[in-house]
């Protein structure tokens, strides 16, 4: 059985990917870096490293595009630093070193740094939507990772000066600026900076940014400002800003242990997973709408059980942000449900935003697409609709978010307690760290999970009777550890040097249904194998049958096969579906199902839109 312990993040570079699912995604890292860098240097991209060059006097031009551009540049550098920490590739260092002097020169004398303000006629702290604090937060996180990876203090010094400046503006709590927590990456960033520097004001300021909620209405539910966080009962408003707030509050709780904060976070979480999350882990159905309290919202959580498929927004950054929140809740509570959802998001809606080669991207992640009924990006309602993957874009926050997530995956896989190590995800990887006692720990994990069922964990070095924690996913009821049955949930085992654990996680295609209150999925079924949600693309349907003529019987048998026309040797699922002829009218008489069965192949949802454009569905009618 498990016991509750407060796990802490490992340091950048203490673990690395070696093989398997996550290792494959960053294997060609320089190709990915150069592709991202090219977008950041494109004059018309929404996120531009060029803005720092202009502020530094090294590049001619004017500030261009989004107020949150700086933050997205910091995320790119953070991802590069993650990868440098494990490869020590001088080409990565050269790229980072090219832009750090621009960032240093862009900082003003008092520590303020935001190019969307200094290069324009906008005033400081005039409008929450100027995203100043978003940019600060990603600077703080980037600087901490960069310092851990390189030992270079330049970015860290910029971050400390910027944080010290923020302390002069927001300590004590400034009621006039009570709604300035929009897109609050600064809370997580400040806690990371506190952990690295031990400067108490940084933690104090992070707590103030949590407490500010509800002190000034601002945009109401859109910015999570209508209700104080400690009194909130459900997730509301912009899903990225909400998840960043909840993840930041969890970071604050890790140090203050304020019961009211954890109670609120658990209450909000339970409402989300009971009423407002997709089977893929997507979290924001609404492009534009009205909250349950009557506030205008966009890119937002919706009414309870309102989870449409084709117009689902599910922005990539939001999905990853909820996984970040789940990671923190798992570390704080050691409750398996958080790990289950973290894993579900990371293998589905968290990564469907990138092409398999990480060179093209989606902003939104719907659960259905029709090539002949494309959703037209007319006015705000359908902005960022994902008909085609992009290279440059008018909101380029998702590519660097994915990049820093992939390269930062070792820090998702492992975490530390005083007396041991937690394995949060099964993946080919190595850990080389020390416990707080100074005792060295080295672990080598080999696995091709989630395609293969076997996970081997070799404890190369550990103190005697060290506690190793791991999670058996909730979907797996036939798992074994070293040949003995083991139930879903969190488990602690005592290990020492040269011990080996072999965990088997048998997985097969399983049909899922939705709560009947999810009207869009009522009478429909979806397919999962292990943690991976599957979808059907039109190019994988035989005989020219259309997607909307198919139904899935509950007794369908699935045959596993390796997908040879896509990379990474993923597992596909062959099946025969029922043909249900459809009419062309909006409403038409019911027709009988054909006797003929239609051969199809399901692929992992995250891998859709990597071939020619096709129809796609996660949910299919139940035959």
What does this structure look like?
Helix content is 33%, strand content 19%. The strands form 4 sheets. Strands 5, 16, 17, 18, 19, 20, 21, 22, 23 and 24 form a 10-stranded antiparallel sheet that branches. A 7-stranded antiparallel sheet has the order 2-8-9-10-15-12-13. The chain is globular. It has 16 helices and 24 strands. Helix 4 (69-87) runs parallel beside helix 15. With 623 residues, the protein is of the alpha+beta class. The longest helix is centred in the N-terminal third of the chain and has 19 residues, at 69-87. It has helices spanning 20-25, 29-40, 50-55, 69-87, 90-106, 115-118, 132-150, 154-170, 185-197, 200-211, 239-256, 259-275, 316-333, 336-346, 398-407, 409-413, and strands at residues 8-9, 15-19, 286-290, 296-300, 368-369, 414-417, 420-423, 428-434, 440-447, 454-461, 466-472, 480-481, 484-485, 489-495, 500-504, 509-512, 524-529, 532-541, 550-551, 559-562, 571-579, 597-604, 616-617, 620-621. It has 3 domains: 25-112 and 126-407, Glycosyltransferase, CATH 1.50.10.20; 413-504; 509-621, no CATH class. Strand 3 (286-290) and strand 4 (296-300) form a beta hairpin. This is Glycoside hydrolase family 127 protein. InterPro entries: 6-hairpin_glycosidase_sf (IPR008928), Beta-AFase-like (IPR049174), Beta-AFase-like_GH127_C (IPR049049), Beta-AFase-like_GH127_cat (IPR012878), Beta-AFase-like_GH127_middle (IPR049046). GO terms for molecular function: hydrolase activity.
């Amino acid at each position: 059985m498990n016991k509750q312990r407060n796990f802490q993040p490992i340091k950048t570079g203490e673990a690395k990917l070696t093989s398997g699912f996550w290792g494959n995604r960053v294997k060609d890292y320089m190709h990915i870096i150069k592709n991202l860098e090219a977008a950041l240097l494109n004059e018309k991209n929404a996120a531009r490293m060029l803005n720092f060059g202009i502020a530094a006097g090294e590049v001619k031009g004017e500030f261009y595009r989004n107020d949150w551009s700086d933050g997205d540049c910091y995320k790119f550098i953070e991802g590069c630093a993650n990868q440098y920490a494990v490869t020590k590739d001088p080409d990565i260092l050269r790229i980072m070193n090219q832009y750090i002097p621009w960032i240093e020169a862009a900082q003003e004398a008092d520590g303020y740094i935001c190019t969307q303000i200094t290069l324009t006629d906008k005033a400081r702290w005039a409008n929450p939507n100027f995203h100043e604090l978003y940019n600060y937060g990603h600077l703080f996180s980037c600087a901490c990772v960069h310092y851990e990876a390189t030992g270079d203090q330049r970015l860290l010094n910029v971050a400390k000066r910027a944080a010290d400046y923020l302390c002069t503006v927001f300590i004590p709590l400034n009621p006039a600026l009570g709604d300035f927590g929009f897109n609050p990456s600064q809370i997580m960033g400040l806690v990371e900076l506190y952990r690295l520097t031990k400067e108490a004001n940084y933690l104090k300021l992070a707590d103030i940014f949590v407490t500010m909620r509800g002190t000034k209405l601002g945009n109401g539910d859109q910015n999570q400002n209508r209700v104080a966080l400690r009194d909130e009962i459900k997730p509301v408003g912009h899903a990225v800003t909400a998840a960043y707030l909840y993840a930041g509050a969890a970071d604050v709780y890790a140090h203050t242990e304020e019961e009211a904060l954890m109670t609120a976070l658990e209450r909000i979480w339970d409402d989300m997973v009971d009423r407002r999350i997709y089977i893929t882990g997507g979290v924001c159905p609404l492009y534009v709408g009205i909250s349950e309290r009557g506030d205008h919202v966009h890119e937002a959580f919706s009414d309870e059980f309102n989870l449409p498929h084709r117009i689902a927004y599910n922005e990539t950054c939001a999905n990853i942000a909820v996984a970040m929140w789940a990671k923190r809740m798992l570390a704080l509570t050691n409750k398996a449900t958080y790990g289950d959802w973290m894993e579900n998001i990371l293998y589905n809606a968290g990564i469907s935003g990138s092409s398999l080669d990480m060179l093209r991207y989606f902003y939104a992640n719907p659960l259905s697409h029709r090539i002949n009924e494309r959703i037209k990006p007319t006015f705000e309602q359908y902005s960022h609709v994902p008909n085609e993957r992009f290279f440059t874009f008018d909101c380029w926050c998702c590519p660097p978010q994915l990049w820093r997530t992939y390269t930062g995956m070792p820090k998702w896989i492992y975490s530390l307690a005083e007396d041991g190590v937690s394995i949060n995800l099964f993946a080919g990887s190595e850990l080389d760290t020390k416990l707080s006692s100074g005792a060295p720990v080295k672990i080598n994990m080999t696995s091709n999970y989630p395609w293969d069922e076997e996970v081997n964990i070799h404890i190369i070095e550990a103190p005697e009777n060290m506690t190793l924690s791991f999670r058996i996913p909730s979907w797996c009821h036939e798992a074994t550890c070293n040949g003995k049955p083991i139930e879903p949930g969190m488990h602690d085992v005592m290990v020492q040097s040269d011990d080996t654990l072999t965990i088997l996680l048998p997985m097969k295609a399983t049909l899922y249904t939705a709560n009947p209150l999810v009207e869009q999925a009522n009478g429909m079924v979806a397919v999962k194998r292990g943690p991976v949600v599957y979808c059907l693309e039109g190019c994988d349907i035989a005989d020219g049958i259309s997607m909307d003529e198919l139904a899935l019987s509950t007794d369908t048998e699935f045959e596993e096969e390796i997908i040879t026309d896509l990379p990474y040797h993923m597992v596909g699922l062959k099946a025969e579906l029922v043909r249900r002829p459809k009419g062309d009218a909006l409403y038409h008489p019911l027709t009988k199902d054909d006797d003929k069965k239609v051969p199809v192949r399901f692929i992992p949802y995250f891998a859709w839109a990597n071939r020619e454009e096709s129809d796609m569905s996660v949910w299919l009618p139940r035959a």
